[in-house]
Design a protein that fits this description.
Chain lengths: 111, 138
């Protein structure tokens, strides 16, 4: 008991607070968006058993190699849908990036 | 007496620091509320975007599989045999539109014509929500 009293009288119970502030704001990445490419126009040719000769003759006339890379009507539909899905994915990814940029790099945040 | 004075000084300092801590905590809470609202807004935006894109994908599916009044499904192959040149034009137009949609989705600027399109005949039917902001489906 006497020892405790000595401690109580010799040491202050009040300690000075130490507050550390170490916030260092991250520099925004601010990458430029990639430039949108200009897509070249392509031309679909529909070839049936009725117009095949006419189509190849026209191709020869236009100086093109008389060869076609074909798709059936069902496969054409699949290609169109796949293309639409890729497009939707690009849009969603762009929107996601914009959201992240707005959330982490908006001017309000840096204020 | 001297010790009391020293303690008092420390207490005052502590009080100031505590006030600072409280106010910085309030700032943190305010920031968190703001962040939470931003997250909600961004989630809503993404949900709306997903809905729009899903509708456009369904619309494409409908184009290929539209059922007529007699219950027969549209067959693009049959149509292409019956009206080769017309369908070729339709396919090429749709292909141009689809490519334009990709360009826009990758950040290409909208043209004035695209921005101002309000009629069905003026829009890019592959992605009106993206290409024609003034168009309201009717």
């Amino acid at each position: 008991m006497p020892i405790l009293l000595i401690f109580l009288t010799s040491c202050s119970s009040i300690k000075q607070l130490e507050v550390f502030k170490t916030e260092v704001k991250r520099v925004p990445l601010n990458l430029e968006k990639p430039a949108a490419p200009n897509m070249e126009k392509l031309n679909w040719i529909i070839i049936t058993s009725d117009n095949a000769e006419e189509v190849f003759a026209k191709m020869k006339e236009d100086g093109k190699d008389p060869v076609l890379f074909g798709l059936s009507d069902d496969d054409y539909e699949i290609l169109a849908k796949n293309f639409a899905q890729i497009r939707a994915y690009i849009i969603k990814q762009g929107a996601t990036l914009d959201s992240y940029k707005e959330y982490y790099e908006s001017s309000e945040k840096s204020e | 007496m001297y010790k009391l004075k020293a303690d008092n000084a420390i207490l005052k300092e502590n009080a100031i620091k505590l006030e600072e801590a409280v106010s910085s905590q309030q700032a943190v809470i305010q920031q968190q509320t703001k962040d939470f609202n931003t997250i909600l807004t961004q989630n809503k935006k993404m949900t709306a975007l997903n809905e729009t894109l899903n509708k456009e994908l369904s619309a494409l599916d409908d184009k290929f599989n539209k059922t007529n009044a007699s219950g027969k499904k549209r067959d693009i192959g049959d149509l292409a045999i019956a009206r080769t040149k017309t369908i070729e034009k339709v396919i090429n137009k749709a292909s141009d539109n689809a490519q334009r949609c990709v360009e826009i989705s990758m950040g290409a600027e909208l043209t004035e014509k695209e921005k101002n399109a309000t009629k069905k005949s003026e829009i890019n039917s592959e992605c009106p929500s993206l290409a024609n902001p003034s168009y309201i489906p009717y």
